[in-house]
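I hope you will forgive my troubling you with a question about protein structure. You will find the record immediately after this paragraph.
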Amino acid sequence: MPAKQALEVVIFRKEGCHLCEVLEAEIRLMKDIKSLTVVDIDGDPALHDRYLLRIPVVTVGGREVFEAKIMDPEGKWRKRLPSLLRA
């Protein structure tokens, strides 16, 4: 069985976004995260336009794997998060 690959994750978020804070905290608890980069979309007009209505957005290897619409109120997304990041 191959070893687990350490993940390089990017979160696109903005200050004051509660969903962003919750997701970031959840990802920081994951043990197989090699690196986590947090990008504030307010610092870049193009990123702001691209992600504002979808934040938090997570990419792994440059591929979008997660966004706000996945965050169901019951919190089931938390159990799915590890598999989404490895997809």
